[in-house]
Amino acid sequence: MRKTFFAAFFIFAAFLGKAQKNTLLDGGFWKNNPSLETVKAEISKGNNPTQQNPGFFDPVVMAINNRASNEVIEFLLAQKGNTVDKKTHHSRTYLQWAAASGNLEVVNTLIKNGSDVHYKDSHGASIIGYAAESGNQNTAVYDALFKAGVDPKEKNEDGANLIHLTIANDADFKLLDYFTSKGVSFKDKDNYSRTAADYAAKLGNLQIIDHLIAKGVKPTDQALFFATQGSRAKQNGLDVYQALVEKYGLNPKAVNPKGATILHSLVRRPNAEIISYFLNKGVDVSKADNEGNTALMLASGGKDLKTVEALLAKTKNINAKNEKGETALMKALASGSAEITAFLVKNGADVKATDLSGNNLAYYWFNSYQPAGRPGQESQTDDFSEKLNMLKSAGLDVKAPQKNGSTLLHLAVDKGDLYLVKKAIELGTDINTQDADGNSALHKAALTAKDDQILKFLVEKGINKTLKTEFEETAYDLAKDNEFLTKNNISIEFLK
Predict the structure, then answer these.
(1) Dihedral of the CA atoms 142, 144, 146, 148 (nearest 10)?
(2) Residue 321: other Cβ atoms inside 10 A
(3) pTM metric for this prediction
(4) Where are the domains of the chain?
(5) Topology alike, domains 284-398 and 409-496
(6) Can you say where the ANK repeats lie in this chain (predicted)?
(7) Nearest-CA neighbor of 432 among 412, 411, 413, 409?
(8) HEC secondary structure over the chain
(9) If pLDDT is split at 50, 70 and 90, which confidence band does 8 have?
(10) CA 87 from chain center: how many Å?
């Protein structure tokens, strides 16, 4: 009996491990351009053709984006669960991916099967808008969408037309001529008075800008901000910015519609040479955008210490706050590196600061923890520990409750992470502290737990089960209304 149990356990564990690693979600598998027979063989081994990864990419999207054969793509589309209206990454439908990749045959198949040609994803991008912005050069795809009812003069939420969205990739001006023939005007401006020449700066092709100038369309200062976008494969170099400022006479101190300077954009993909160029042009480092964020705050939430050093050298107030009351140090703790955190503390960042909600630095540090299993988790854990040591050395009481009375233990329970629950207790957090609503960590766990693991751990650690919320409810009372527990027949009698 014992041998049978362990044999069954290991078979189940092996199956679970296999189920967790779906070959059809492996980019390497698709880069080898698998045949239909190969794909079918993988499905027969238990690889799910409809499963989505944590980013909501599924095998159909992987196949489309890796230019798999249409035979393979259409076979996957025929699998139950892969409907034409299925939402994937950023809520995009298959038609968006197919149109962006220029796959006319699949586009036609999806339209024929009822895919909505007017659909917009979670970023507000339409089918044709996403295809245009992604660089699709196949005009037959646009023809198919127009035939299905899309208006060639469609504009996105910013008021950009299809020429605006395609111009940066249109080195031979084929699309410019094509869309012009459809009634789209290259002289149109978007809702923020930005021109086609501004949009052309995205990939730094100055010949396109010159061509548009010859046609009477000049770049505005906003071209500088488009230049910071680049693409996944390309980041514009200093020469592009120098040309925009010195050849075309654009203002390096300009702000965009969000109230940001070019430094706000540049620090997201830092290049020391380019940042230095604009600092020397007198761009105001202390200028806050419409949300109150300075370039230093944004840079502090990244990983590039040299950028933070360069900005801080010209910053007047290291403890400036945005509209949420967040400081550069809070940003560093939330998503930046331990070395940036240490640098800010060393240079006078206030470790006693709180945001407008009354959350202190311990709140930002604790929320920065990344669960095991994510890429780079080991180094993130090291950063997590280093940041804690810095905060404690600087005199911050990490056990102190936030303004609403919640402790690190409450935060840990909210995240449903046993490691953080143990960490909060290890740091000396009072296990029985109740927040402003009378909720202890056990109350919160009873409300949200998907299993009994954290609940039992808190009980084992001696948390008071008789504590009541402001509505006179015990943890047992709350657990009775937790559908995760009741539907899975998880006993809660130990909470009495």
Answers:
(1) -150
(2) 21
(3) 0.87
(4) 284-398, 409-496
(5) yes
(6) 90-122, 258-290, 291-323, 324-356, 404-436, 437-470
(7) 409
(8) CHHHHHHHHHHHHHHHHHHHCCHHHCHHHHHCCCCHHHHHHHHHCCCCCCCCCCCCCCHHHHHHHCCCCHHHHHHHHCCCCCCCCCCCHHHCCHHHHHHHCCCHHHHHHHHHCCCCCCCECCCCCEHHHHHHHCCCCCHHHHHHHHHCCCCCCCCCCCCCCHHHHHHHHCCCCHHHHHHHHCCCCCCCCCCCCCCHHHHHHHHCCHHHHHHHHHCCCCCCCCHHHHHCCCCCCCCCCHHHHHHHHHHCCCCCCCCCCCCCCHHHHHCCCCCHHHHHHHHHCCCCCCCCCCCCCCHHHHHHCCCCHHHHHHHHCCCCCCCCCCCCCCCHHHHHHHHCCHHHHHHHHHCCCCCCCCCCCCCCHHHHHHHCCCCCCCCCHHHHHHHHHHHHHHHHHCCCCCCCCCCCCCCHHHHHHHHCCHHHHHHHHHCCCCCCCCCCCCCCHHHHHHHHCCCCHHHHHHHHCCCCCCCCCCCCCCHHHHHCCCHHHHHCCCCCHHHC
(9) very low
(10) 17
CA gap 236, 238 in Å, rounded: 7
Q: How far is residue 439's CA from residue 405's CA, in Å, rounded to a whole number?
A: 9
d(CA 406, CA 325): 18
The pLDDT value recorded for residue 370 is 81
Residue 380 is predicted with a pLDDT of 58
pLDDT at 346 over 90: yes
Looking at every residue in the chain, the average pLDDT score rounds to 93
Q: How far apart are CA 48 and CA 51, in angstroms?
A: 6
CATH number, span 284-398? 1.25.40.20
The phi and psi torsions of 452 (rounded to 5 degrees) equal -100, 10
Identity of the residue numbered 32: N
- Looking from the CA of 384 toward its CB, the CA atoms found within 13 Å total 17
64, two tokens: 């489309």
Q: Which residue has the tokens 């910013």?
A: 158
Distance CA 481, CA 367 (A): 27
CA 274, 343, 330: angle at the middle one, nearest 5?
90
Judge residue 43's burial from the number of C-beta atoms within 10 Å of its C-beta, 0-12 exposed, 13-18 middle, 19 or more buried. middle
pLDDT greater than 70 at residue 19: no
Q: CA-based angle 59:166:254, to the nearest 5?
A: 115
As a whole number of angstroms, the distance between CA 490 and CA 120 comes to: 41
pLDDT tens column, 67-113: 999 999 999 999 999 999 999 999 999 999 999 999 999 999 999 99
CATH number of 409-496: 1.25.40.20
Using alpha carbons, select from 401, 391, 394 the residue that is nearest to residue 361: 391
